[in-house]
Amino acid sequence: MFDINNILRENIKNLTPYSSARDEFQGEASVYLDANENAFGSPLDEAYNRYPDPLQYNVKKRLSEIKGLPIRNIFLGNGSDEAIDILFRSFCNPGVDNVIIVPPTYGMYQVSANINDIALKRVNLTAEYQLNLEGIAEAIDKNTKIIFICSPNNPTGNSINREDVETLLANFNGLVVVDEAYINFSRQKSFIQELTEYANLVVLQTLSKAWGLAGLRVGMAFASEEIIEVMNKVKPPYNINEASQQLALKALQNVDQVNEWIKETLAQRDKLVLALKNFDFVLDIYPSDANFILVKTTDPKAIYNFLVERGIIVRDRSKVELCEGSLRITIGTPEENNILIKSLQDYK
What we know:
It comes from Mucilaginibacter auburnensis. The protein is α/β, with parallel strands linked by helices. It has 13 helices and 11 strands.
């Protein structure tokens, strides 16, 4: 049975969070003399002299409407990377605890583990890019606090079998973090709908991909109220700046536009796959539920360098376990995809 107190760090249990001026007063006033701000304004067209809402209420309210979740189950971070780091700092004791990742997967889990001095256990995906449940079960010990699963997975693009994730959620007494950065492009439904079923589930999403807001750095974590309370206690007081909050809120009114881009991206993905299959140097194209494809080639380094010379940048993933010989290609606009294909026609 999962109990948050069994995995929460003792210093975090006893932590008194920083109390900002905006935490102590909530509401509207005519004169603010509490936060040592510049009362005269900003040297910009728009004033940013006041500190932002530390809990981003308006953005969360809109996300609550879109996701069908209470505000108390939503955490906002400076990108999903901040949420990942806060999970390490809240639940993993440096030099003692460990987490499990399932390579090939998103690289920040390993980087964040290393920064926080948390041991990393690697249980590679199967040849079909699915979870090795037996291997994960063998890797778990009394100090294993978190299992990270990226679905749809980066860099392979496929979704992880839902039943396998549910097996972990039901049998592991630590946190299972399902990173859904690419869920908007997937045929699978989000694990957000399972939050009421599993107290140890954390779902990560982002506004960087389908929503086209990578430059604003707004990531989301969805979890039980008690997990969100811990994350809010540990985070910096003003972790999402005012400009990002305002622009994110404005963007979140345009759901129809984003849905149109998603449809176009999926259509372009299908067209790109068909075009790439015509090249002799393309050995395989793996099924994708994301806005990118993983393409196995005869000589990834040579193809990568060939494209770089023509001003086209893809990602060489050939040195990543189980991705040998592969390039990761993001789905671009129709014009960008055509430039890619026409350039590859000149590759010998």
